[in-house]
Amino acid sequence: MMSGLLSIARAEWQFWLRSRLAVGALLIFALLLVATSLVTALRMSNAQHERAHQQTAAEETFLSQPDRHPHRMVHYGHYVFRIPPPLSIIDPGVDSVTGQSMFLEGHRQNTAMFADARASAELGGFETLTAALAYQLFLPLLLIAIGHGLIIREREENTLAPLLAHGVTGIQLYFAKWMALAGASLAMLLPLAVMCAYAFFQDSAPLASAGVIGIYALYLLVWCSLILLVSSVVRSRSLSLGILALVWLSAALIVPRIAVESASSAVPAPGKLETDYNMQAELREVGDGHDAGTPRFLQLQADLLAEYDATRLEDLPVNFRGVVAQVAEADLTEVMNRHADARMALEADQARIAASFGWLSPVVAVSAGSRALAGTDLATHHQFLRKAEAVRFDFVQGLNRVHTEQLAYSDDINRSTDAEAERRARMSADNWNVLDQFVFKPDAGGERLARAYQPFAMLIAWLLVLSAIGIRIARRVQP
Amino acid sequence: MTGTMRELQFLAKDRAVLLWLGIALLVTGLSVLLGLGEVASERAIISELIDIDRAEREAQRELHRDWGSTAYYTFHLTYDAPSDFAFAALGMRDTSPWKHSIRALALEGQIYETDADNPDFALIGRFDFAFVAAMLAPLLLILLLHDVRSRERAAGRYELLSAVAASPGSPWLVRAALRAVALALCLIVPLVAGGMLADAGASELVLASLIVALHIGFWWGVCALVDRFCWSSPVNLTALIGAWLALAVIAPAVMRSAVESATRLPDGGELMLVQREAVNDAWDLPKSATMEAFVERHPQWAAYTEVSQPFEWKWYYAFQQVGDQTVEPLSHAYREGRIRRDELAAKLAWFSPPTLVTRILQDIAGTSMKDSLDYEQRVRDFHAVLRDYYYPRLFRDEAFTDESLGERPEWSTLPSPGR
User: Fold this and answer.
1) Most-buried pick from A32, A289, A435, B33 (CB within 10 A)?
2) pLDDT at position B418, please?
3) pLDDT mean over B240-263
4) Mind telling me how many Å the CA of B1 is from chain A's nearest CA?
């Protein structure tokens, strides 16, 4: 039984190998896949090394700063770099559009700067041809080119009747042809599998690597079932190819962009600039931590004086300016985080709406799943922003603590006019170790896999529905 | 003429052809509507921001009554309003900022901030007319034209039809021409309708329509070329889609890599680090060192460089300026590099008609890389004007008055580029 199926599948493979067109297309695609995979892998691993190096350099620079007033270090600030995760060699995801470095300083949440997309040459088409894009968009074209005539050819060449007469059932024929096309698609997964293996040795997240292979395999099988379905329903190769080209056109080019447009009009999200402006009024209420004279801090002053039973700020055991800086930073951060969280929630909603178009196009499903698994999706970018903010807040407050506990208030207020006080207001550089090392890693493989459950579910649903219809039709196949 | 009429009737009855044309009309209409919506929302955002920005500056005016802290705390909104044709090609507005708020501190620390949309969106791209015209239209034309001859050949009518026709190629030529013209109309009609709604200039619309027509003409030529090999329809279609893939996808990607490796840019991260070091080191340097470096570029303030206090605002702004001066070579290289990349891309675009169409439509719409760089330059110019406004007030220690504050330059009053 199985050998019968295999021999039909083998006959199909032999047919492709004899057809110059099929061989040519296969070779060109194999070359395309290998080339884009290599280029993407090289580009991303360069970026990994470069940014890791820059991150270390930034930390060393911060720690090697000389003695100075701690608030100067708050404004001196620190840089964090988003180091692409290992699987980004397959799918760089949002890396090219989000900017690679971010400046962390007191009182502000900056955006990431230097997005590649802003500096790259504008040549239309797709942003960059990555391995992920080659698999998601262009490999299905190859499958269509070699597979659109799978069953029709048997019909057109009058070999269907003899096959059926020899006792091959329609379902057996369906499975044999499916195996032929699926075998070819899975062979094309080889470059991807090699890259996944490479990524696995880098971060040993076996679930994520396996997930990437799994989701692309599933995706290609969806296309196989679709192609086979069209090939068994339609009576002419030309029409079959036309229909499949149309399906590809809408699934790969139209629906993803419609998804974007729908999501952006369903959930309008204000930009960073609007958010910043809208926040200004609230921030004024918090008060400026540089100015201890605002009413809100006068109250704080009275409270502190009462608590320590003192009459002058100079008599407090803590530096009042440092206290103000700490309180203001905490309140300010609370406001900034609230707005940032709201904005991220809106973006996540948008992403969710866009991803739901995976029910309409397997391309949308696989690209969302692939980014989630590779750790290059929006959710991971948000985690990076949150982690960077945590580092920012910690080092700023650490410096403010030094300001509060080690710097005498009298020196602090006189340092702008008294050179001696200015000298004493410089704190030892040993204090700069309040800066934590910035290590950002995407979620563990299991969590990323969990985040990709919806795309997986979509693709499985696609596969089941298409195969079920295909089998129903195959059962009644007639010459 | 009767031949043309007859072909027109065939076309009207050919369901497959009508399907492709219907799809073309639908996607074009949709892209135009979405583009119009996007432009409207950008305009709404800008006008809202202008109001907020004004209110915000009013509020700052109440809070700060000296030049130093006013300059420190006041942000100024800058923006690049979309043109009337921008609906057709949103272009770089997707990834590059078209709104930016800056203040009189060191510019290099502010100018590279991105205020982009959801990164997922920028990654996938927008569904604008340029995308339809450059990427989808060739595919639809390929679907329309790949079987003009081969279908009749497969049906066994080809020899007969050729023999009875007035001239050997004429029925096929007329048939293909009708389909190509119909497709061009499906693109141009919604574009012109949208253009009229958006008040776009007639010359822009004519030029864009011409580009679309030429692009379709090019792909017709490709189809005709493939048709000469007398392959069967499926082979034709496969070869044509291969040609599309090569010209619309692979060529741009290869050219992009080529451009990027041919023109290296200084690393953005390094640019930022140099700038920060320059600004922050100034705190520890002797004040005279900063003031000397400052005066080199601004000799008119040489008489006012005496700094007697450990902190004075004029010294603070002087080292902000010196910070920008220090990073200038890198910043220039970064900017020049991007300009060179764009120029190179403009030349290479001739190898890929879809790329060329995209770039030309972006040029017409004022949404190209060049426009985005122009906006950046205008922000730089505005920042320079802002500094020129503050420097006399800071260095001569002028009195802070509302009248003097009223003279502060505003983005909206700056001369905008002639568009």
Assistant:
1) A289
2) 40
3) 88
4) 30
pLDDT of A420-434, one tens digit each? 888 888 888 888 888
Instruction: Please state, for a pLDDT cut of 70, what percent of chain A lies above it.
Output: 97
Whether residue A269 and residue B118 make contact (CB cut-off 8 A), yes or no, is: yes
Nearest to A129 among B49, B249, B311 (CB): B249
DSSP collapsed to 3 states, chain B: CHHHHHHHHHHHHCHHHHHHHHHHHHHHHHHHHHHHHHHHHHHHHHHHHHHHHHHHHHHHHHHCCCHHHHHHHCCEEEECCCCCCHHHCCHHHHCCCCEEEECCCCCCCCCCECCCCCHHHHHHCCCCHHHHHHHHHHHHHHHHHCCCCHHHHHCCCHHHHHHHCCCCCHHHHHHHHHHHHHHHHHHHHHHHHHHHHCCCCHHHHHHHHHHHHHHHHHHHHHHHHHHCCCCCHHHHHHHHHHHHHHHHHHHHHHHHHHHHHHCCCCCHHHHHHHHHHHHHHCCCCCHHHHHHHHHHHCHHHHHHCCCCCCCCHHHHHHHHHHHHHHHHHHHHHHHHHHHHHHHHHHHHHHHCHHHHHHHHHHHHHCCCHHHHHHHHHHHHHHHHHHHHHHHHHHHCCCCCCHHHHHCCCCHHHCCCCCC
Query: Is A123 close to B368, i.e. CB distance below 8 A?
Result: no
pLDDT value, residue B419: 37
Residues of A in contact with B140 (CB under 8 A): 249
Q: Tell me the per-residue pLDDT of A120-147, one tens digit each, with 9 for 90 and over.
A: 777 776 667 888 888 998 899 889 988 8
How distant is the Cα of A253 from the closest Cα of chain B, in angstroms?
8
* B120/A378 Cβ within 8 A: yes
Distance from CA of A307 to the nearest CA of B (A): 30
**A41-54, pLDDT tens digit by residue?**
888 888 888 888 88
Least Cα separation, residue A109 to chain B (angstroms): 11
Residue B156 contacts A, CB cutoff 8 Å: no
For residue A208, pLDDT beyond 50: yes
B351 inside 8 A of chain A by CB: no
Q: Is B215 on the interface with A (CB under 8 A)?
A: no
Q: Please tell me if residue B243 touches chain A, with a CB cutoff of 8 Å.
A: no
CB B269 to CB A280 under 8 A?
no
